[in-house]
Amino acid sequence: MNLLFLGTSAGVPTKQRNVTGIALRESKGKGWYLIDCGEGTQHQVLRTKLTFNSLKAILITHVHGDHCYGLPGILASAGMNGRKAPLTIVAPAGIKAWLEATCETTQLGLPFALEFVASDDLPSVEFANMAVATFRLSHRVACYAYAFTEKNVDAALDIEKLTQKGIPRGPLWGQLKQGFDIEFAGELLKSADYLIFKNKPRKVVIAGDNDRPELLIDACAGAQVLVHEATYTQEMAQKAIEVGHSYAKLVADFAESVTLPNLVLTHFSPRYQFNPQASPSIEDIRKEAQSAYSGVLYLARDFLEFTLDKSGHFSEVASE
Amino acid sequence: MNLLFLGTSAGVPTKQRNVTGIALRESKGKGWYLIDCGEGTQHQVLRTKLTFNSLKAILITHVHGDHCYGLPGILASAGMNGRKAPLTIVAPAGIKAWLEATCETTQLGLPFALEFVASDDLPSVEFANMAVATFRLSHRVACYAYAFTEKNVDAALDIEKLTQKGIPRGPLWGQLKQGFDIEFAGELLKSADYLIFKNKPRKVVIAGDNDRPELLIDACAGAQVLVHEATYTQEMAQKAIEVGHSYAKLVADFAESVTLPNLVLTHFSPRYQFNPQASPSIEDIRKEAQSAYSGVLYLARDFLEFTLDKSGHFSEVASE
């Protein structure tokens, strides 16, 4: 499972950072999910190996423009690139009507269907290889976090149990191993009951804008990674609360309280400069978070990619 | 008067070319006009010396997404950059309602007023230093060309006429020279009647998508420069006509027929590759146009800048 940051700036793009867009790639194949789609996200995708045809779903955390103004363009380009497969869009109320109005005004006919799921219903959405749960956050508008948990985790057959049950070695074992339930001696046997999972399923929580990280306690249970905004440092705490954002220490304190293994901060205000010698810089955000959090801390930047391996180990992918 | 290309690709962005956006800068000061605003135009602006505060107006040629999806984001960023001055938007019907719906859905409050002018009324819009006339084109949707003619052209006083009229040398001469009409001996005297213009006013025509260049005959009268799409070469003529676009020879033939001094082609289909060794490449478009047009031909690319000097001489600005 890989995380690739396509945009890490808050509100407006800068020369070094685009507005929000995060790609989550499945561990098998090329399938990926796009979480938020600020303007220019399709341009960032062009600079990666991701393709519009292998995009499984777009999930929008909230309606602010820096998280959704890239939607019409990425859909138009996917269409012009020949996409035919339906695309799921999980988004707060408003996005569906706005996209429909945009298609009508700009005479955009898409050659694939859009399947909308309203985030406001806190849906659990199941994809072939991924289950997504939705959690409510606190911001100026309705805003959500999406927790991605992999399905079809590698497992070994529980030979002892299979033998006890008298299931003969052969095709039935194979079906159970591949995750299919079977009928045996007039009984429905569930695949999961005859498998021993080697590892916990991988789980990544990606949160939208939020001034109350503690809302993510349930979401973070069993998660190896939380991606959360840290728009400011504590020095700007008053401004942060006014505009519904977090500062580094607030997120770090929460992550520490739930003993989260890996925390990735993103969505930095342009006031924090990219150059670590400048003041204030992104390094100020890092220092503040580091002082409160004893897990592994990362600060996102555009095109930074991470991998979460089967065993739950999370690490940076060396850039090419 | 300077022309700076911010995007020169048709339909979708490529790694080398963004979708349409053209900046026209006034000869005096920092004022500029943005013609079309595809997604990512604000990102391109960040890479130039243009500022959101000195933007005088945005003019949209038509409602297709590759010409307008960057509008909400550029307005949001201008607001976050502190712009307070009203902004004129000249655009076809639909854009106003769409922008208003976008602002409402995405809770975008702008700290400056938008003043909409409907292109469909073929308006002549007067700015302090520029007069803009609108011309109807032929495309799949209502589409327009904008002709920019500079005002306040350098001029000398007509001393003979002033003396004949008995106007005393002094402040009145100064006012006439600066373009102000005056009252003298109970009569209103127009500044333009007492000035000798050294040069023809500079005039640049910027056309949107169009499959009938001959519609620009009137627009091109007295123009030094026409910017026109050449999405395809003649090999793709049938496709071009189907989708309402021009191919190189069609535009070149027209430019030749009106003895246009300078032609800039842009809005190239991504099928024409940037690499001149590839096939088909942008160079195929150049060759086809060159064979039919004896004026000065340019092919636009992103960040290519041109200057049109007082005397009407048009040339590339050396990049830094």
UniProtKB/TrEMBL annotation, chains A, B:
<comment type="similarity">
    <text>Belongs to the RNase Z family.</text>
</comment>
<feature type="binding site">
    <location>
        <position position="67"/>
    </location>
    <ligand>
        <name>Zn(2+) 2</name>
    </ligand>
</feature>
<dbReference type="InterPro" id="IPR013471">
    <property type="entry name" value="RNase_Z/BN"/>
</dbReference>
<keyword id="KW-0378">Hydrolase</keyword>
<dbReference type="GO" id="GO:0008270">
    <property type="term" value="F:zinc ion binding"/>
</dbReference>
<feature type="binding site">
    <location>
        <position position="66"/>
    </location>
    <ligand>
        <name>Zn(2+) 2</name>
    </ligand>
</feature>
<feature type="binding site">
    <location>
        <position position="209"/>
    </location>
    <ligand>
        <name>Zn(2+) 1</name>
    </ligand>
</feature>
<dbReference type="InterPro" id="IPR036866">
    <property type="entry name" value="RibonucZ/Hydroxyglut_hydro"/>
</dbReference>
<keyword id="KW-0540">Nuclease</keyword>
<feature type="binding site">
    <location>
        <position position="267"/>
    </location>
    <ligand>
        <name>Zn(2+) 2</name>
    </ligand>
</feature>
<protein>
    <recommendedName>
        <fullName>Ribonuclease Z</fullName>
        <ecNumber>3.1.26.11</ecNumber>
    </recommendedName>
</protein>
<feature type="binding site">
    <location>
        <position position="209"/>
    </location>
    <ligand>
        <name>Zn(2+) 2</name>
    </ligand>
</feature>
<dbReference type="GO" id="GO:0042781">
    <property type="term" value="F:3'-tRNA processing endoribonuclease activity"/>
</dbReference>
<keyword id="KW-0255">Endonuclease</keyword>
<comment type="function">
    <text>Zinc phosphodiesterase, which displays some tRNA 3'-processing endonuclease activity. Probably involved in tRNA maturation, by removing a 3'-trailer from precursor tRNA.</text>
</comment>
<dbReference type="Pfam" id="PF23023">
    <property type="entry name" value="Anti-Pycsar_Apyc1"/>
</dbReference>
<comment type="subunit">
    <text>Homodimer.</text>
</comment>
<keyword id="KW-0819">tRNA processing</keyword>
<feature type="active site" description="Proton acceptor">
    <location>
        <position position="66"/>
    </location>
</feature>
<keyword id="KW-0862">Zinc</keyword>
<feature type="binding site">
    <location>
        <position position="139"/>
    </location>
    <ligand>
        <name>Zn(2+) 1</name>
    </ligand>
</feature>
<keyword id="KW-0479">Metal-binding</keyword>
<feature type="binding site">
    <location>
        <position position="64"/>
    </location>
    <ligand>
        <name>Zn(2+) 1</name>
    </ligand>
</feature>
<feature type="binding site">
    <location>
        <position position="62"/>
    </location>
    <ligand>
        <name>Zn(2+) 1</name>
    </ligand>
</feature>
